[in-house]
């Protein structure tokens, strides 16, 4: 042992640094930095990519102090349940203070990736002004900015490689932001503006595509018509990833024929998405490239029913990732099972987003997929009903699940045949899938399912629970058993103070805990906050009744707690109370 | 103990109104009458009664599902971007269909059909006849019937000449012509 340590100390730092260069995963780098002080020092000066899973866990100043050479920053803001309207818009997650600190710290930022954060035009303008080498901006589920901010990025970031906007709420100011890319800009590799609602100057877009010879990924929005797409494809046959705009046209026209020809020449396209507006009669244009596709997203395509979907998918023999609507039906999933033997990830979304009607998929479709696609490791499945028998069969067919998310339309629906809870089915899943990292459960569920999860889901990192369980025992099973748990989100379950307070230290090993409409009281939350100074315990009270003397016995509507090194945040709005 | 039983039921009950609001008794479902004895030993028959009552409730109270905030868990972006095209399927595009010699007319919804083949098959089945094969040069061969339609201008046109979408938007009324009149339509001048 002793001689080993001294041997390592003889390695010059440059050698250590060179070795650390091979470590790309931030988890590996975090582990390495814990070995000893000298390794910590070498690692922190050589780290270029930093991942911050909760923007309130650390301050930008401390981050820059530790990693002065950071070039790429990933930040996540709001809790996951914010996606489903459970968190008010102005809860927080502002990127502005981060950008200001980075500017002050004279950091050479080149990449910024944000998820569920509030981004203002001012933030984007700061980025554009102060980071001349800025190369990559990826915004996922963010809001607060307009196309004016995008115009600033387009105008000023001379070496921009990537502008990737995924599912953001962007106010369209119709200021021709895309035309702001100067003629000298030829560096774009990836451009995704699917989520923008307004028109772009088509001629500008075509010229941009023509001069960016390294463009690999292009996803346009619905305002780009099919004939414009054809002209773009003619200029960019090297594309690897395509997101179509409006895919509606009279197929008996020359424009459409030209599209078919141009599409055929795109022999590198392996990923296809878009189709926010599509006519089934235009889909045949895509058939020639189906055999190349590894990723296909039709989950925003309205009005394309099972027969048409199947005609397309049966050609997609290399497909690894498929996103569709439940209009595909169980039969359609059967075709997927027999055609897509390489399938790894499947997501079946609701076509009726308000969940009022029926879905066309049941447990049968899921079983068919599991039987036909042995490489399946990730699934998101919205369905009408489920059975234990089906889940047990799925568990047997596919022991390799990393992500398993099931959502029944009725959150407490029992086994469709036996009318029993779905405990045994999910139990089989966690028992069989030893590498399971993410799980969402749904249906009628008792404490038993949590016993199984605690006992078997040893690699589980994220668990989402709604309308499940009978008592504190359920939550306790999870907290005690799932050693690698990072994120736990619970709504409408009978879990209360006993479960919350049983192992307070556990929360410092996790990123966050969300509990809403459960049985925890103010008193218990206060106790937790008092005893654990390195946790922020936030109470979200939308009725703005943050009275000084709240009854300790009163139940808390929404609680979000997370570990942090920097204490209560200063930007919390009035309805958020950090205890 | 009674308090704990309440919790059990609340967790699995579909409620109207926002979660967390105080339970108002007039909204309590009939399934609440069965109370579970303890969380661990669930009485099978009670559970079945609960579930049966609940699933009966499910069919009738599907409206209450939409009142649960944030359920089903669909991202707001997806909700606002997926156009369900419901309006189209509800209004339909019905046109009258007359056949020479038939006592009364029929009506068909053009939106239901994928194209001409579909439509003609449906007409054949509806009127119990054979329509024959379409060709651009000779119209419908092999039968004494020919399908025609009245367009926006009131002209009588042979079905099948123009693209389906165009046909759908210009067709005001269908007429199945028979015998010599059919031949007159079908034969190129």
Brief digest:
Chain A is of the alpha/beta class and 579 residues long. In chain A, strand 9, helix 10 and strand 10 form a beta-alpha-beta unit. Chain A starts with a helix and ends with a strand.
List the helices and strands and how they pair.
The complex is a heterodimer of chains A (579) and B (189).
Chain A: H1 2-9, H2 13-21, H3 26-33, H4 37-46, E1 49-52, H5 60-66, E2 72-76, H6 96-104, E3 111-115, H7 121-130, E4 136-140, E5 143-146, H8 147-156, E6 162-166, E7 169-171, E8 190-192, H9 202-211, E9 217-219, H10 226-235, E10 241-243, H11 254-265, E11 271-273, H12 287-290, E12 295-297, H13 306-313, E13 321-325, H14 329-339, E14 345-349, H15 363-372, E15 378-383, H16 388-397, E16 403-408, H17 423-432, E17 438-440, H18 447-456, E18 462-466, H19 472-481, E19 487-491, H20 497-502, E20 512-516, H21 522-531, E21 535-540, E22 558-563, E23 576-578
Parallel strand pairs in A: 1-2, 2-3, 3-4, 4-6, 5-7, 6-8, 8-9, 9-10, 10-11, 11-12, 12-13, 13-14, 14-15, 15-16, 16-17, 17-18, 18-19, 19-20
Antiparallel strand pairs in A: 20-22, 21-22, 21-23
Helix pairs in contact in A: 2-4, 6-7, 7-8, 9-10, 10-11, 13-14, 14-15, 15-16, 16-17, 17-18, 18-19
Chain B: H1 2-12, H2 44-60, H3 62-65, H4 76-81, H5 86-91, E1 94-99, E2 106-109, H6 116-127, E3 133-135, E4 139-141, E5 145-150, E6 156-158, H7 164-170, E7 173-178, H8 179-186
Parallel strand pairs in B: 1-7
Antiparallel strand pairs in B: 1-2, 3-4, 5-6, 5-7
């Amino acid at each position: 042992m002793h001689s080993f340590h001294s041997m390592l100390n003889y390695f010059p730092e440059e050698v250590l640094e060179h070795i650390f260069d091979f470590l790309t995963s931030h988890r590996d780098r975090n582990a390495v930095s814990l070995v000893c002080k000298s390794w910590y020092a070498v690692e922190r000066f050589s780290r270029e990519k930093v991942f911050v899973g909760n923007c309130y866990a650390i301050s930008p100043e401390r981050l820059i102090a530790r990693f002065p050479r950071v070039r790429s920053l990933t930040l996540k803001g709001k809790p996951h349940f914010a996606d489903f309207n459970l968190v008010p818009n102005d809860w927080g997650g502002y990127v502005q203070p981060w950008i200001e600190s980075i500017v002050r710290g004279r950091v050479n930022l080149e990449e910024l990736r944000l998820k569920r954060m509030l981004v203002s035009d001012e933030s984007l303008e700061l980025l554009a002004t102060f980071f001349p080498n800025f190369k990559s901006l990826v915004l996922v589920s963010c809001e607060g900015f307009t196309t004016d901010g995008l115009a600033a990025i387009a105008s000023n970031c001379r070496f921009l490689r990537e502008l990737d906007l995924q599912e953001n709420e962007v106010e369209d100011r119709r200021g021709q932001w895309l035309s702001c890319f100067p003629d000298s800009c030829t560096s774009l590799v990836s451009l995704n503006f699917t989520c923008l609602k307004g028109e772009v100057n088509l001629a500008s877009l075509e010229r941009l595509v023509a001069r960016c010879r390294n463009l690999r990924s292009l996803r346009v929005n619905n305002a780009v018509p099919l004939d414009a797409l054809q002209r773009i494809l003619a200029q960019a046959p090297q594309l690897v990833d395509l997101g179509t705009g409006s895919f509606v046209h009279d197929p008996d026209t020359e424009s459409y024929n030209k599209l078919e020809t141009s599409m055929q020449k795109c022999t590198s396209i392996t990923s296809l998405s878009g189709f926010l507006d599509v006519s089934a009669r235009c889909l045949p244009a895509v058939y020639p490239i189906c055999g190349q596709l590894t990723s296909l997203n039709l989950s925003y395509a309205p009005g394309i029913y099972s027969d048409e979907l199947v005609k397309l998918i049966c050609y997609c023999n290399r497909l690894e990732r498929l996103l569709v609507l439940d209009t595909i039906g169980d039969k359609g999933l059967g075709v997927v099972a027999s055609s897509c033997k390489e399938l790894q990830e499947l997501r079946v979304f609701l076509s009726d987003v308000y969940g009022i009607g029926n879905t066309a998929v049941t447990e049968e479709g899921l079983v068919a997929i599991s039987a036909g696609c042995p490489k399946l490791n990730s699934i998101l499945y919205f369905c009408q009903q489920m059975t234990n028998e089906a889940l047990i069969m799925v568990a047997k067919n596919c022991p390799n699940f990393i992500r398993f998310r099931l959502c029944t339309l009725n959150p407490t629906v029992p086994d469709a045949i036996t009318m029993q809870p779905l405990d045994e089915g999910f139990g089989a899943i966690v028992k069989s899938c030893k590498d399971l990292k993410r799980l969402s459960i749904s249906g009628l569920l008792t404490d038993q399912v949590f016993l199984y999860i605690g006992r078997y889901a040893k690699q589980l990192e994220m668990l989402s629970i709604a309308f499940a369980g009978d008592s504190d025992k359920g939550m306790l099973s999870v907290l005690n058993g799932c050693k690698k748990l990072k994120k736990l989100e619970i709504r409408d379950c009978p879990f209360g103070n006993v479960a919350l307070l049983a192992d307070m230290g556990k929360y410092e090993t996790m990123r966050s805990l969300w509990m809403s409409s459960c049985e925890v009281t103010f008193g218990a939350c206060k106790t937790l906050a008092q005893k654990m100074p390195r946790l922020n315990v936030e109470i979200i009270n939308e009725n703005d009744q943050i009275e000084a003397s709240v009854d300790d016995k009163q139940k808390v509507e929404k609680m979000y707690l997370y570990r942090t090194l920097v204490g209560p945040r200063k930007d919390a709005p009035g309805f958020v109370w950090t205890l | 103990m009674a308090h704990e039983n309440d919790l059990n039921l609340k967790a699995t009950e579909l409620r109207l109104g926002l979660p967390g609001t105080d339970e108002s008794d007039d909204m309590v479902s009939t399934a609440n009458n069965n109370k579970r004895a303890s969380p661990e030993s669930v009485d099978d028959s009670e559970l079945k009664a609960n579930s049966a009552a609940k699933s009966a409730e499910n069919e009738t109270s599907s409206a209450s599902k939409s009142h649960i905030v944030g359920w089903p868990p669909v991202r707001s972006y997806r909700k606002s971007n997926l156009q369900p095209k419901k309006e189209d399927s509800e209004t339909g595009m019905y046109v009258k269909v007359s056949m020479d010699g038939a006592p009364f007319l029929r009506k068909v919804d053009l939106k239901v059909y994928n194209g001409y083949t579909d439509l003609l098959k449906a007409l054949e089945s509806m009127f119990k006849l054979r329509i024959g094969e379409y060709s651009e040069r000779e119209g419908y061969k092999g039968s004494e019937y020919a399908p025609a339609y009245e367009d926006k201008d009131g002209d009588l046109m042979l079905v099948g000449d123009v693209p389906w979408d165009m046909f759908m938007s210009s067709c005001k009324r269908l007429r199945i012509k028979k015998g010599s009149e059919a031949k007159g339509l079908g034969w190129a001048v």
